[in-house]
Write a structure and sequence with these properties.
Blueprint: H1 2-11, H2 13-35, H3 40-56, H4 58-65, H5 89-122, H6 127-144, H7 150-171, H8 177-200, H9 208-233, H10 235-242
Helix pairs in contact: 2-3, 2-5, 3-5, 3-9, 4-5, 5-6, 5-7, 6-7, 6-9
C-alpha cells in the first residue's frame, strides 16, 4: 500500500502539489478564524495578499523545482570561461516540461484560493471590500496575459472574471430599475468589446506602450493589495479613532 501510494504521488506530483498548497491556505484560514476574532471577510483579505505574493514567485519556484539553475554572474575575466558548455537538448526539454507542469499546478492552486477570497469579499457591500474585489480581479486577469499555457491562463482569468460578475450580481438586487438598465447595458457593451477584441487582436502586432501600460497597472494593483487588505481589516479606522 505504501509503495503504491508513493508511485501515485510520483506520477501525479504536480497535482498533489496543488492540493498541498490549497490545504496550507485552508489551514491558514482555519487558524485565523479559530485563534482570532477576525470575520471571514477579514481572513479572506489576508489570504488574498498571501496568494498574490505566492503568484509572483510561481515562475521562479517552478524553475527551481524542475531542476534548472541559473549560473552565477561572473566577477572576473576567468569566470567568463566557466560553465559555458551547452546542456543537452533532451534534458532541457524534459525539465521545461516539468517546469510547465509545476507552474500549472501552482497557478491552479492560486486561482482556486483567489476564487474563494473573491467569493467572500465580493458578497460584501462595503466600499473597502468592493474595491479590493475589483483590484484582485483585475490583477488576476492582467497577470494571465503573459502566460503561454491555456490552463495557466484560465486558472487566473476564470476567478478574475467571476469576481467582477459576482459584484454585479450582488449589487443588482438592491439597485433601482434605472441603475439595473445601466448595469445591463454596461455588461452588454463589455461583452461586445471582449468579442471584438477576440476577433481582431489575435495575430496582430500591438503597439509596445499598451503592454507597458498593462505592466504598470498590474504592478500598481499588486502593490495596492496590502493597503486594501489593511482597509478591509479596519486598521485605518482604528488608527483614526486612536488619534481622536
Amino acid at each position: 500500500g505504501a509503495v503504491l501510494a508513493l508511485a501515485v504521488v510520483a506520477a501525479f506530483a504536480a497535482l498533489f502539489l496543488g492540493v498541498a498548497v490549497i490545504s496550507v491556505f485552508a489551514a491558514l484560514v482555519a487558524v485565523l478564524l479559530i485563534t482570532t476574532d477576525l470575520a471571514p471577510v477579514h481572513a479572506a483579505g489576508i489570504v488574498a495578499v498571501v496568494a498574490v505574493i505566492l503568484g509572483a514567485f510561481v515562475p521562479s519556484l517552478a524553475f527551481r523545482m524542475s531542476g534548472m539553475r541559473m549560473p552565477p554572474l561572473p566577477t572576473n575575466a576567468q569566470q567568463l570561461q566557466e560553465g559555458i558548455e551547452p546542456h543537452a537538448t533532451s534534458v532541457v526539454s524534459a525539465r521545461a516540461v516539468l517546469a510547465d507542469g509545476w507552474m500549472t499546478s501552482l497557478y491552479g492552486a492560486v486561482g482556486i484560493v483567489a476564487a474563494g477570497c473573491l467569493f467572500v469579499l465580493g458578497r460584501e457591500r462595503e466600499l473597502a471590500e468592493i474595491i479590493m474585489t475589483v483590484a484582485l480581479s483585475l490583477l488576476l486577469i492582467l497577470h494571465a496575459r503573459g502566460l503561454g499555457n491555456i490552463w495557466q491562463r484560465m486558472s487566473l482569468v476564470a476567478p478574475g472574471v467571476g469576481g467582477l460578475i459576482l459584484l454585479v450580481v450582488v449589487a443588482a438586487p438592491a439597485a433601482s430599475p434605472g441603475n439595473r438598465l445601466v448595469t445591463a447595458g454596461g455588461m452588454l457593451a463589455a461583452t461586445a468589446a471582449v468579442a471584438i477584441a477576440a476577433w481582431t487582436v489575435p495575430g496582430r502586432r500591438l503597439v509596445p506602450y499598451w503592454g507597458r501600460a498593462g505592466e504598470l497597472l498590474q504592478s500598481a494593483l499588486a502593490i495596492s493589495m496590502l493597503p486594501l487588505a489593511l482597509w478591509v481589516l479596519g486598521v485605518y479606522s482604528t488608527l483614526r479613532s486612536i488619534n481622536g
